[in-house]
Specification:
82 residues; mainly alpha; rod-shaped
Amino acid sequence: MDTSSFKTIMLRISSKVEKLESVTNSISSEMQKKKSDRDEWYNWHKLWKKAWFSNSKELSQEETEKLKEETSATTRYKAIDI
């Protein structure tokens, strides 16, 4: 194998590695955003269940109504549209 073909192969490999790093970084960034979205949804859903399905007396009627308003689907959709 001569040095010119070796250099050509190394350049091609190097180019592929750079593309792979770019794709990996892109995927990692997308996964972090999706995790953030899931965490946000989980927290909202947890509060929503507390407001709408809680039978305990841990919240006053006023607090429950406020939490219901804050976690209502309508309020959530409006927040997403903004």
